[in-house]
Amino acid sequence: MIYISGTKEFKLTNTAVALGKFDGLHRGHQVLIDHINHYKEKGMLSVVFTFDYHPNSLFGDKEQRLIYTFNERRIIAERMGVDVLIEYPFTKETASMDPAAFIKEVLIDKVGARFVVVGEDFRFGKNRKGNTDLLESMAPLLGYQTDICRKICDDIPPGLDDNEKTETKKIGSTIIRKAIAVGDIETANRLLGFPFAVMGEVIHGRRIGRTIGMPTANLMTPENKLLPPNGVYISRTRIYNKEYPSVTNIGCNPTVSDSSSRRIETYVYEFTGDLYGKDIEVMLYHYQRPEMKFESIDALKAQMHRDKDCAVAYFKK
């Protein structure tokens, strides 16, 4: 996959381009990507066009936490078969760009769009005045075609939406972000279309797991990575493109540390080998229990065995 980020100096030709934030690459985003990949059969490049800074972060008081970091998004987009991922500089100049000028100067002159694929509620340009009507009206003038995709819906549990009861709602990153934030991993995974994951390089930890015969892989995540509440999660871990069942603790490990910094610590109970310095992917499936402080290492070990038994039963079921 070709990756273009942080620059406006590029020129592509003969492309089918999907436009959006793509911060979750959820089932709605996957519809757009399926459409642009379809045009590859006609000899076109499939292009995902998004921004190198989350729009909500530029104008908000604090940085928006992301379902997937830029590096994670690149990995997932490549798995989905995307030819080119563009993270266009999102500056105040970009945000204030006239929508018609954006179509002509960016989509046509730089991206080389012949097919433009967007969701039905897509907005762009200054004051978000650009919409699907504008895209369709300018298509004959500039020689491209549009593909407007309807939003897909799913049942949203109470508490994740403004309504009090479960309703069928459009899938979006905001609801997925809420589900992750409260630890409703099953709902987040259903809306994403695949397990919510944390990807990164394994770092050295306190090696407590090794002393009790249950070695763990430790990950540190960027500040802008969205994480669920502290606790123990049933998970699967991808190592060298193979998946293994695992148990993951998110939190501060209060039994063995006084630190307040959060980390991801995963016991991959069917894997043996050295993972230090290796990139792994921890996929969360189910919130098992809150993080706890134990009276002793032996008590911690006994609980880790119980957590493993719960994971074995979960995947067997």
Overview of the molecule:
By secondary structure, this protein is of the alpha/beta class. Helix content is 29%, strand content 26%. It has helices spanning 27-38, 55-59, 70-79, 92-95, 99-108, 132-142, 173-181, 185-192, 208-211, 297-316, and strands at residues 2-5, 15-19, 45-51, 84-88, 113-119, 145-149, 153-156, 167-170, 197-201, 217-219, 231-239, 242-251, 263-267, 279-289. It has a 6-stranded parallel sheet with strand order 1-4-3-2-5-6, with helices on both faces. The protein has a 6-stranded antiparallel sheet with strand order 9-14-11-12-13-10. It is elongated. The two termini are 37 Å apart. The model has no long low-confidence stretch (mean pLDDT 90).
List keywords for this structure.
single chain, 317 residues, alpha/beta, six-stranded parallel beta sheet, six-stranded antiparallel beta sheet, 10 helices, 14 strands, 29% helix
What's this, in brief?
The chain has helices spanning 27-38, 55-59, 70-79, 92-95, 99-108, 132-142, 173-181, 185-192, 208-211, 297-316, and strands at 2-5, 15-19, 45-51, 84-88, 113-119, 145-149, 153-156, 167-170, 197-201, 217-219, 231-239, 242-251, 263-267, 279-289. It is of the alpha/beta class and 317 residues long. A hairpin with a 2-residue loop joins strand 11 and strand 12.
What is the element layout, followed by pairings?
Blueprint: E1 2-5, E2 15-19, H1 27-38, E3 45-51, H2 55-59, H3 70-79, E4 84-88, H4 92-95, H5 99-108, E5 113-119, H6 132-142, E6 145-149, E7 153-156, E8 167-170, H7 173-181, H8 185-192, E9 197-201, H9 208-211, E10 217-219, E11 231-239, E12 242-251, E13 263-267, E14 279-289, H10 297-316
Parallel strand pairs: 1-4, 2-3, 2-5, 3-4, 5-6
Antiparallel strand pairs: 7-8, 9-14, 10-13, 11-12, 11-14, 12-13
